[in-house]
Amino acid sequence: MSLDSFTDSVDEAVSGFFEPIAKWLGDVVFYSVPVNGTELPLIVAWLVIAGLVFSAGFGLIQIRKFPLALKVVRGKYDEKGSAGEVNHFQALTAAVSGTVGLGNIAGVAVAVSIGGPGATFWMILCGLLGMATKFVEVTLGVKYREVHADGSVSGGPMHYLPKGLAERFGARGKTLGKVLAVLASAFVLFFGLFGGNLFQVNQSYAQLVSVTGGEDGVIGGSAGALFFGILVAALVGIVLLGGIRSIASVTSKLVPAMAGIYIVACLVVILVNVSAVPSAISTIIEGAFNPQGVAGGVLGALIIGFKRAAFSNEAGLGSAPIAHSAVKTKHPASEGLVALLEPFIDTVIICTMTALTIVIANPASYVELRNGGESIGGVTITSDAFATVLPWFPYILTIAVMLFAISTVLTWGYYCMKAWTHLFGRSKASEITFKVMYTLVAVAGSLLTLQTLIDMADAVLFMLAVINIIGLYLLAPVVKRELNNFLDFVRRRDAGQDTEADEDEDQEPVKTTV
């Protein structure tokens, strides 16, 4: 049996077994209600409402404290002797690398095709709301993290849900928190293996094949797929062995590089068509409030824009606090402020650049889909937008896709490791078992599609958002206290007072475990 026949058999067997489960889970998690001629997924409303509540509750912190967040990420308020493994900038890039991915390229293209250019406006608004949610969950992630005897750090919803709920509600909160922590770990692990790993490798390989001659090209066959999978797996395995310090070191270079390459590519398309920029911006604004050919009219454009942003920046899903928890700081809210930059980078900047490039370039594939043509892959539309300027621009896109995919695989490898060790312990054997499993899944990514498992992974990740946001609501008073503590520290530091020995008297000491 050839390798192609074997992988096809595996795909069919997995799909046949899991398809009914995936369909049922998707129907439950992404349950939609008809609203003015379009469908509103309740999970998207859940995420957007959280953004609204936290934006109001913290007085539009994403706007008021944006300049302070930039100062913190530059290291102005760093403190000597802080527990943690990485600095603020490295923690931010590690987390951004987990959210910035193919969804920013392909998903946005689909959003502006189906929801019209006006979906861009609502996407930006949802990204701004998500900044407040990200602030809350990351502050809690650092507040309730664990620092182990070897100096490594573990954090995320599997830590702040049990500890925070026990602290606020006693024995009942502790019991509930433990159950939620196990569920959170399982959800993160499942999504990481199939959505954060296999899917990213699969799609980056597909893009590489498309620009190297297709199925008949140099890497189009099963041997090329296997080589690509092994190469990615080797790179990921080597970096994972170094833990978050190694991942942060790579992503702190990779994220600026990939974002820079992609934004420059978008700017070239925009500058070549600079005369069309005012018209494109006008079209986006007009389309937000008076969309043409969009089911549900304004509400339809709004829902599609919100859906794309919510799926892209992961605000409220509980994944980013895992990476941010490793930061070196004595004040949890300092990293919460840094984290609010994440949806701004992911959604407000990168997603908007993609949408603006497509609207301005107006490639034939985009026009066809807008006019009711058959479904076209989102990455194809973006690639065609680049090709309107120079035929070789899709190669630039391929480089960006590869960087996005590898950085996402790396970061989700770290997230999965923390989930795995929470469930199965931090022994050497346990960690090695996970790393071998994760690298094997990366190899499989170039050979298999396993679309059914990927669909299940999406549903599972958004199930995490339900329990995570409930926890965020219950623990919001803790976040307010932490914010006030940090702002007091900032005032004293700016006034020139000695803060080297500053300790938060109201804060429980970080738990250290073996």
Low-confidence regions? 504-510
Could you give the order of the helices and strands? Answer: HEEHHHHHHEEHHHHHHHHHHHHHE
CATH topology type:
Amino acid/polyamine transporter I
Gross morphology is globular
Overall pLDDT level: 83
Separate helix tally: 20
Annotation, overall tally of beta strands: 5
Total discrete domains: 1
What do these coordinates show?
- By secondary structure, this protein is mostly helical.
- The chain has one domain (10-493): Up-down Bundle (Amino acid/polyamine transporter I), CATH 1.20.1740.
- Helix content is 75%, strand content 3%.
- It is built from 20 helices and five strands.
- The strands form two sheets. The protein has a three-stranded mixed β-sheet with strand order 4-3-5, with no helix packed on it. It has a two-stranded antiparallel sheet with strand order 1-2.
- A hairpin with a 4-residue loop joins strand 3 (146-148) and strand 4 (153-154).
- The radius of gyration is 22 Å and the shape is globular.
- The relative contact order is 0.21.
- Mean pLDDT is 83; it is low at 504-510.
